[in-house]
Input
Amino acid sequence: MAGPCLTILLPNKISDMDRIEVENTIQPISTLKEKRDFWVGGQPFIWNEALPDEEESQLNIKGWFPEGVLVFCAMCNNIASHSILAAICIKVAEKTKWNDRIR
Output
């Protein structure tokens, strides 16, 4: 059974350079990686991108409205995968250029 998913709302649509930036952030912490599937701490995860849904697109976050969404999902449902998922999302948010624009 798959575990939880976390989303990161972004101030712009995701470009090819943004995808590379996400991949470059995930690569060093992954023990195994194939396309958007990756393993961290013995736990499987997957990431994807999306456009904001109707509710998300109407959120005013410090003067901007979400135009892109990163979705990270744990493929296991246990305490370890939940903790690692949170850490992955924090790392991606901190290491990507969006963090500078959001502050």
